[in-house]
Amino acid sequence: MSTDRTQDGDHATLLWLPVGAGGHVVIHTSAWWERWRAAVEHRPPAPLFHAALEVRLAGVPSAIEMAPAWGAGSGGPGVRATGPVGLAWLGRSRFFRYEIRCGDHGIIPDRAWAMGAPVILTHEAEIIESMLLAVGSAPPLTWGRKVGDTGDMWNSNSLVSWTLGTAGLRTDYEPPMGGRAPGWAAGEHLAR
């Protein structure tokens, strides 16, 4: 039986963050990549977003996201898994590794850049617990590599859509401003 503990403030929230927000390199490389993809797909370029999850359970906030294994917030106690970036053998260097993070009192470093209204996914404690447990078993696939026949790559968006699908939540969300969330379909595919 599900328990709705709205009065305790339990919730899971989806945030959309512009790719490269506050940075100097990723914002440009992702813009180049999107212009190239748009040309290949015969469509106009769109803003790119990456998804992150904020949850609160029994008064304890947590953040669920995928981020580089170096820089702000790396190597902390909330790291649940790591995986390689680009090519598996590159993952020997921490500069080509990502972390799947989910820890008590975790924060999303670029939270201030979130676009659009946060999407409240649930207030049900049991579902939130399922999400937190699921993150520990997320597949540490190679970031940027295609997943199955989806044509979509594994990345931070994949982790979020996979977590939602694994916890039994809907996954048919879209980023704001007509933006794109590359990798979202890969996570949905793996959750099925």
The chain-level mean pLDDT equals 88
Count of discrete alpha- or pi-helical segments spanning 4 or more residues: 4
Total E-strand runs: 6
Tally of domains: 1
Can you write the helix and strand succession as a string? EHEEEEEHHH
- Span between N and C termini? 23 Å
Oligomer: single chain
Q: What is the percent of helical residues?
A: 10-25%
Catalogue the unreliable spans.
1-7
Main sheet: which strands, in order across? 4-5-3-2-1-6
Structural class: alpha+beta
* Rg for CA atoms: 16 Å
Strand proportion = 25-35%
Report the biggest beta sheet as strand number plus sense, adding barrel if it closes: 6 strands, antiparallel
Shape estimate: globular
What does the model show?
With 192 residues, the protein is an alpha+beta fold. It has one domain (7-191). The protein contains four helices and six strands, in the order βαβββββααα. Strands 4-5-3-2-1-6 form a six-stranded antiparallel sheet. Strand 2 (49-57) and strand 3 (60-68) form a beta hairpin. The chain is globular. The protein starts with 10 loop residues before the first strand and ends with a helix. Mean pLDDT is 88; it is low at 1-7.
SSE topology sketch:
Elements (H helix, E strand, L loop, with lengths): L10 E8 L7 H15 L8 E9 L2 E9 L10 E6 L12 E8 L10 E8 L2 H11 L20 H11 L17 H8 L1
Antiparallel strand pairs: 1-2, 1-6, 2-3, 3-5, 4-5
Helix pairs in contact: 2-3, 3-4
